[in-house]
Write a structure and sequence with these properties.
By secondary structure, this protein is mostly beta strands. Helices cover 13% and strands 51% of the residues. The protein contains eight helices and 27 strands. It is rod-shaped, with a radius of gyration of 49 Å. It starts with a helix and ends with a strand.
Length: 409
């Protein structure tokens, strides 16, 4: 056996050496060196508190991710991804140009001798800003509808103001801080805790990890009241310009819903808007009137529309002048023992004025001129008052004098 093992020992040694050489050759061919680009490795920012001490905050303009080129054996490099590396930027080393160098290392120490790393761009660029603190009131928005016959009234917010700290440019984008609460089916007052959100001028929620809010949620005391429908009545005060008058007052809505404590809305039978001034007007006008100004304290209009739209039509007055005759005058309260003689001064006139509708078809018979002679004494009664029929929308002016001579029969 020993003799067989030693036979051709030189050839056997040469075979082993050649086998080892061939193994190395095969391994170098199949596991060749290769280069791989690995992109978008997130960069961790270290020592940011250094900038906080300077009352400054930063924003990454570029370099929040980094791309690297890895070189090594195929069997190692081909299995690597961005999750196998750690990228860091030490903000305490920031240069005067606000740049920080990025370093990338493999998570496994064993890879240090297996691969080499080079960078496409390993610079992080920062934007520095002053840190500001601003106060904002909390606005409440409701979603859903309360139970039928009920409305949501005042909502008390605790706290009603919060502080926001962060970069000035980011804080300046905040136009509203809002607490949203769903009131679907509510029929009684209650309390709710709700988160608050930051909104920009476009009504979009702001998500910025550089902004710090002193309060993430608020407590809401929600008042819920019964609803009641009441009529609206609009009337005017003052007088239009000379020769003009109000032809029509139109307004909408004529009925609105109000809500509030039951004992208060029970006392509201209608809403009287009685201070709409038309003084000196010569033409039509429109206006909006806020109904809440005419409601008792703690009573409010249901819904977002609190206004009454009012349209006032002003028209020029028409007029007609009658030359009064004695036969047109009726004597009232005559004494059968007396005779009465009416004497009109030359050109006694009656002028009637009013809007077109009131003046339509008006004549002296409708005006019904009359004299009350019940209290007249025997003799000449001067400057007697002429009584004219009271017609809605008609005003009168007279010129001249009337004398009535009373005698015994």
């Amino acid at each position: 056996m020993k003799k067989k093992l030693l036979n051709n020992i030189g050839l056997k040694i040469i075979s082993i050496v050649l086998a080892i050489i061939f193994w190395f050759v095969v391994m170098n061919v199949s596991d060749y060196s290769m280069t791989v680009k690995i992109e978008d490795i997130p960069v961790q920012q270290l020592n940011g508190e250094v900038l906080d001490e300077l009352e400054q905050v930063y924003d990454v303009a570029s370099g929040d991710t980094v791309d690297i080129i890895v070189r090594g054996r195929r069997s190692v490099v081909s299995k690597l991804g961005k999750e196998d590396f750690v990228a860091t930027a030490d903000l305490s080393t920031m240069s005067i140009t606000n740049t920080v160098q990025i370093f990338v290392t493999p998570k496994l120490n064993s890879l240090d001798n297996e691969i080499s790393i080079s960078y496409v761009d390993n610079t992080m660029k920062l934007n520095l800003e002053d840190k500001v603190v601003t106060q904002f009131p909390i606005k409440v928005k409701t979603e859903g509808a309360p139970a039928d016959g009920f409305a949501v009234g005042e909502i008390e917010v605790k706290p009603n103001i919060v502080n926001v700290e962060g970069p000035k440019s980011a804080v300046d984008k905040i136009t509203e801080i809002r607490a949203t609460v769903n009131v679907s089916g509510f029929s009684t007052s209650c309390e709710r805790e709700t988160i608050i959100e930051l909104y920009d001028a476009y009504g979009e929620v702001i998500h910025n990890d550089k902004l710090f809010v002193s309060q993430n949620s608020v407590r809401l005391n929600i008042s819920v009241y019964p609803v009641k429908s009441v009529a609206v009545k609009v009337s005017t005060i003052g007088t239009a310009a000379t020769g003009y008058d109000v032809a029509q007052v139109v307004y909408q809505p004529q009925t609105i819903q109000i809500a509030g404590p039951k004992e208060k809305i029970d006392r509201v039978t209608s809403i009287e808007i009685d201070d709409l001034s038309i003084s000196g007007l010569t033409e039509n006008f429109q206006t909006m009137i806020n109904v809440n100004d005419y409601l008792p304290e703690d009573v409010f209009v249901v819904g977002e529309n609190n206004d009454i739209a009012v349209s006032v039509t002003i028209e020029k007055l028409e007029s007609v002048t009658y030359d009064l005759n004695v036969k047109d005058i009726t004597l009232m309260g005559r004494n059968n023992k007396y005779t009465y003689e009416i004497v009109l001064s030359d050109g006694y006139k009656v002028t009637a004025a009013g809007l077109e509708d009131a003046m339509d078809g008006l004549d002296i018979s409708a005006v019904k001129p009359s004299i009350n002679c019940a209290e007249m004494s025997i003799g000449t009664n001067n400057n007697v008052t002429l009584v004219l029929n009271d017609i809605d929308g008609i005003t009168y002016e007279t010129s001249g004098t009337i004398t009535v001579i009373v005698k015994e029969k």
